[in-house]
Amino acid sequence: AIARVKRAGLFRTQGLIGGKWMDAYDGKTFEVYNPATGEVLANVACMGKQEANDAIASAHAAFTSWSKLTTTERSKLMRKWYDLLIAHQTELGQLITLEQGKPVAEGYNEVLIGADCLEFFLEEVKRCYGDIIPQTQADRRMFVLKQPVGVVGAITPWNLPLAMAFRKVTPAMACGCTVVMKPSELTPLSALAAAELALQAGIPPGVFNVVMGIAPEIGDAFLASPKVRAITFTGSTAVGKMLLAGAAQTVKKTSMELGGNAPSMIFDDADLEVTVKGLMIVKFFNCGQTCISPNRILVQEGIHDKFAAALTKAVQSLRVGHGFDEGVTQGPLINQAALHKIEALVEDAVSQGAKVLVGGKRHSLGLTFYEPTVIVDVTSDMLISSTEIFGPVLALQRFKTEEEAIHLANDSDAGLAGYIYTENLRRCWRVAEAIEFGIVGVNDGLIPEASAPFGGFKQSGLGREGSKYGLDDFLEIKYLCLGNM
Ligand code: ADP
Hints:
The protein is an alpha/beta fold. Helices cover 38% and strands 21% of the residues. β1 and β2 (20-22) form a beta hairpin.
């Protein structure tokens, strides 16, 4: 797979600044690993403050002309980028699997998630209207203009290294902003490949820059620079809070996609088949390593045992292995830290009375492979209920009444995704309105779409990605008043 990516010219290990591939100024590199084998995949330029500042300067210089292009001109260039992504779906998908570990079918699908987002925004920006405000004075005319905010600093995570980058970069670029992006150091390669394709598409130098290496230095350079007008981040709540505090120095716009602690609420009147299918698809997507992954499986007493049995059966049919092996549905976890965290959470739950129905330990493949797991008799005071698991563990907790389920669901600082399974229309509406989550799925699993808003309530974040609202984080609103007409 690596040979194929290299032949296509998509195996990039340098940063991209002002349209040029650059080494770190001091020549340093860091290693990127294949989590499925533990082998070093690449030595990547280890950049810091200076490179970040130069990338910001390039983006700032490019903003003048990029923001002045018409939406048609920008969209045409971005359409070429889209076509190149689709043409290289195989190489990009394989590269994602190499650096992140997911089954290659998920890698291919991730390219489409990114491409969908790109297509949505290159189209949506043509409908990004301002307003004409009805007159309040005879000699006055009032308008609202929407203008790109300027240089955007984007910091992205390792779980969907290509798709998460596209969710940020494409709305920003479509509306005329220029971008400096810092991918996760665990998985920089697919974003670098995508940047190469942006160059090939003719997107002008400096519009999309990529730097990576010393994350806090690069982050601080974004925060300190008055030229960077917006920060968009997906990652942990702890880092998000630091970035929010830092953005105050220069009063930037901020959009934050932070941690979740998603409840799945399964009521006695749920359709068992629909529920198991929905839960499995979203829980085991990316081996449970997403912020919308159901974390607290709240199950009503009447359906509990039947549901736990059906779920256990479904979990037993999953196949753990290397992402390139036929039939594999679950890859490795991203690193040892993730493995240790999950082990500690399961151990804590079991020590307090939870029972393992299936899994509950490391997989015989070694490294960071963990067995898909179902545990029952979980309670709210266990660590696993208040911590984002980010792995293939289903933790089932019983409840008696709808009120209790709503209380349990809302009893969290996080408010990203929530799922409801019921065949009762009234209940579905009541519960959907009552829960404090930005994304609510009813009788369904993997619900994010480029055309739908994605974002959290409470400490899960600020702003929305995808949909018409996804442009707002990159636009300034200008009130224009013509007087004495
Ligand atoms: P996770 O726990 O999912 O790895 P992180 O929040 O640590 O989440 O990482 C998400 C992104 O934030 C990555 O690109 C990472 O390099 C970056 N990051 C981590 N710490 C900092 C920091 N101090 N400043 C800026 N970016 C950071």
